Amino acid sequence: MSLESLHLDPAIVQKLSGVTTATLTTVLLKKGLRNVWIRGTQPLQPGQPRVVGRAFTLRFVPAREDLATPASWGSPISTRAAIEAMPAGCIAVVDAMGVTDAGIFGDILCARMQKRGVAGLVTDGVIRDMAGVLGTGLPVWCQGTAAPASVNGLTFVNWQEPIACGGVAVFPNDIVVVDTDGAVLIPADLLDAVVEAAVEQERLEGWIMNEVNNGAVLPGLYPPNEANKARYEAWAKTER
User: Fold this and answer.
1) Which candidate, 199, 223, 204, places its Cα nearest to that of 13?
2) How far apart, in Å, are the Cα atoms of 162 and each of 36, 100, 123, 159?
3) Number of helices and strands (H, E) in the chain?
4) Which residue spans of the chain are classified as CATH 3.50.30.40?
5) DSSP alpha helices (H): ranges in the chain?
6) Any residues with CB less than 8 A from the CB of 26 and at least 6 apart, and which?
7) What is the dotted CATH code of the domain comprising 10-188?
8) For residue 234, which phi and psi values (nearest 5 degrees)?
């Protein structure tokens, strides 16, 4: 029923860990992708590290009274079963339809995810048991918290299938990068090209920032004209 979770090269993780989500949206825009920033995914607490991983998707639909019951938590198709299928290093990306009055996961589920080595949780919904979730150490990006359980407003239906999270189409094994600006999706087939361009863009913007701090004016610098491109390239050769 589920797609096989693919390994993500640690070298790719290391490179993307040095790239902001803001930079990634610019790189993806240049490649024609505008709808890649997942709405409603803000860090649960300040200071969460940037996290990179392949998407492990979960999907909820609206609550239906005969299905969304506490008894459903013991079903073979449940959030509990989905967590046991999550590989270490993945990012759980959960389509909660933007519902903000039913917490999809609480402290116990997040603790189990943390024990399994899940890198983080991203959802356009909310979590519950906030104090306990924070205590698990699992990095979470969401819309906040709500005391009621998921079944008050949602029915869990599947994992590892295409979802819509925060208005973005997310497929299993796409790459997700999350930081203080939220979550950005990189389509799996574009990964290598995006990583190369993003690392170079970060290097360029670091050089531009240094020039600004030294008093340079922006016209002709950001974006750089031919003269400044030549200056940057000369500098970059000494840094590579």
Assistant:
1) 199
2) 14, 22, 14, 9
3) 7, 11
4) 10-188
5) 10-16, 21-30, 79-84, 107-115, 130-136, 191-213, 226-239
6) 201
7) 3.50.30.40
8) -65, -40
3-state secondary structure of 216: coil
- The CA distance from 158 to 141, in Å, is 21
For residue 46, cis peptide bond before it (omega within 30 degrees of 0)? no
Q: Could you say which DSSP state residue 179 is in?
A: E
- Look at residue 1 and tell me whether its pLDDT is greater than 70: no
Alpha-carbon distances, residue 129 vs 10, 148, 153 (angstroms): 32, 10, 17
| Lookup: tokens for 5 | 């979770």
Model confidence pLDDT, tens digit, residues 34-74: 999 999 999 999 999 999 999 999 999 999 999 888 888 88
Which of 140, 104, 144 has its CA nearest to residue 119?
Answer: 140
Residues constituting the chain: 240
Cα-atom radius of gyration of the chain, to the nearest Å?
20
Q: Enter the tokens of residue 226.
A: 């031919």
Q: Find, among 72, 74, 52, 56, the residue nearest to 64 by Cα.
A: 72
What pTM did the predictor assign?
Answer: 0.94
Q: Which residue has the tokens 């400044």?
A: 228
Q: Are 125 and 96 in contact (CB under 8 A)?
A: yes
**Cα 120 from Cα 222, distance rounded (Å):** 34
